[in-house]
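Q: How would the C-alpha cells look for this protein?
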Amino acid sequence: MLKYNYRKYKLSKGCGLAYPVNKSMLDHALDTAGVRELDDLYFSVGLRDEDQVVMLATLRGESHSGYWQKEMPRLGVSAVPLEILAEVRGLLEQSRLLEKIAKWIAGLEGASNVIRDVTRHRVVVYRDGALQVKDENGKRVELP
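A: Here is the predicted structure in C-alpha cell form.
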C-alpha cells in the first residue's frame, strides 16, 4: 500500500466550493497505475492559475546548488466553485485524467536524471467548458 503525507483543507459550509474528487478515487488511480512514490496528497483552495485549477502534480527538481537530493512527487486537488462542480466531475471521468495523472507520476519513478533534475508540473485546469493539462511552462500538453 502506498504511504504518503495527507492533508485536507476543511471547506466551510456555504463557501460555494467543493472538491471534484475524493481521496479514495485518487488512491484507486494511484494503485492502478502502480505508483510507489508519493510524498504528499493534499486538498486545498490555494492552487492558483489564470484558469480554474482542478489538480496539480509536481516533482520538485532533484538537482540543487552543489548537491543532489532524491525527491518524490506531490499531488494536489483544488476546490472548485459549485457552479462547475458537476461538469468538472463529468469531464474528469470522461477524459480519464485521474488515471493519466497517476500514470505520469508512475513514469517519473524510473525517469532519467534529465527529467528528474528540474521541477516538473502537470496542472489540470478547467477553461471554457473543458479540462486542459499544462506543463511547468504553462504550455498545454497531452497526457498519454
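Residues 82-95 form the longest helix (14 residues).

The chain has one domain: 5-141.

Upvote if useful.
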